[in-house]
Amino acid sequence: MNQYCVGIDVGGTTVKCGIFTYNGVLLDKWEVMTRKAENGKYILPDVAEELKKHLEEKTIAYEDITGIGIGVPGPVEPDGHVRVAVNLGWKDIYPARIMRELMGAEFPVQWEMMPM
Fold it and tell me: In sequence order, what are the residues at sequence separation of 6 or more whose Cβ sits closer than 8 angstroms to the Cβ of residue 8?
């Protein structure tokens, strides 16, 4: 079984995404426009939709994803709570939890705060 990781960097203009082998080799990268309408509620759904497409194109099964790293433009509390990301319009959200829900129940990734 091959293992893969996903990196997501949420920015005010675009969200940069990549799929990597577990050893760090970049397999695919793309950008998603950051739709900030309605306090940024479309940002993570847009990313999840594109991620699903790219995983399908690469024939990578969800169970082969060992983790998704999400970088956001604002402080993240130890429980994953983002009080505010001004340039996105986000207030009081949990990006990792939302992303997991959007990817579906079969997606095995769990929230974990990584030290800086």
Answer: 15, 16, 17, 47, 51, 68, 69, 70, 71, 99
Classify 26 in phi/psi space as left (phi over 0), alpha (psi -120 to 50) or beta: beta
Compute how many other C-beta atoms are within 10 angstroms of the C-beta atom of residue 115.
4
Neighbouring CB atoms inside 10 A of 42's CB total: 16
Domains of the chain are 4-103 (3.30.420.40)
Q: How confident is the model at residue 6 (pLDDT cuts 50, 70, 90)?
A: very high
Report d(CA 24, CA 42) in Å as an integer: 29
Distance between CA atoms of 2 and 48, rounded to whole angstroms? Answer: 21
Q: Which residue has the higher pLDDT, 67 or 60?
A: 60
